[in-house]
């Protein structure tokens, strides 16, 4: 089973917890045991399993800013008719576009502090996230 969920992100370097949406789709699928694949269709949005704690998320954003500064020169920013988002594409190479999680007893297998996060590396915009549930 594959479904697409639509989200509106809050802006650059925002983290949106989508765990509940993924869990709802898993429940709807009726799959008891298997895997869930959660993937972004976008080159400037990532999927991450991480702790959803405000200070940590600020730290992650700061690490990406130090590693790939938004104000640096990017050839991609010279494209006509496009927003200057070379930094967002370059940041994306450090983050996954999908994650695979086990499903057991109809539940996502996540650690106590783990959440599924949609990471916006560009500006606020609609994002499509595919959720594929594969029974064992």
Describe the model.
The model has no long low-confidence stretch (mean pLDDT 97). The chain has one domain (2-70, 84-135): Sandwich (Jelly Rolls), CATH 2.60.120.460. The chain is elongated. A hairpin with a 2-residue loop joins strand 5 (98-104) and strand 6 (107-108). The protein has a five-stranded antiparallel β-sheet, with helices on one face. Strands 2-7-4 form a three-stranded antiparallel β-sheet, with helices on both faces. It has three helices and eight strands, in the order E-E-H-E-E-H-H-E-E-E-E. The protein is of the alpha+beta class and 136 residues long. The protein has helices at residues 19-29, 54-67, 86-92, and strands spanning 2-8, 14-17, 34-40, 45-51, 98-104, 107-108, 114-120, 126-135.
Give a topology summary.
Layout: E1 2-8, E2 14-17, H1 19-29, E3 34-40, E4 45-51, H2 54-67, H3 86-92, E5 98-104, E6 107-108, E7 114-120, E8 126-135
Antiparallel strand pairs: 1-8, 2-7, 3-5, 3-8, 4-7, 5-6
Give the overall shape.
elongated
One letter per element, helices H and strands E, the order comes to: EEHEEHHEEEE
Q: What's the overall average pLDDT, rounded?
A: 97
The CATH class = Mainly Beta
């Amino acid at each position: 089973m594959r479904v697409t969920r639509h989200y509106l992100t809050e802006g650059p370097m925002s983290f949106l917890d989508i765990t509940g949406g993924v869990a709802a789709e898993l429940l709807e699928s009726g799959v008891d045991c298997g895997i869930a694949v959660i993937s972004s269709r976008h080159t400037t949005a990532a999927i991450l399993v991480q702790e959803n704690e405000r200070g940590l998320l600020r730290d992650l954003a700061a690490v990406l800013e130090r590693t790939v500064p938004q104000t640096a020169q990017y050839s991609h920013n010279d494209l006509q008719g496009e927003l200057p988002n070379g930094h967002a594409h370059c940041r994306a190479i450090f983050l996954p576009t999908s994650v695979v999680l086990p499903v057991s007893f109809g539940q996502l297998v996540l650690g106590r502090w783990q959440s599924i996060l949609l990471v916006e590396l560009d500006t606020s915009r609609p994002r499509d996230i595919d959720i594929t549930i594969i029974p064992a």
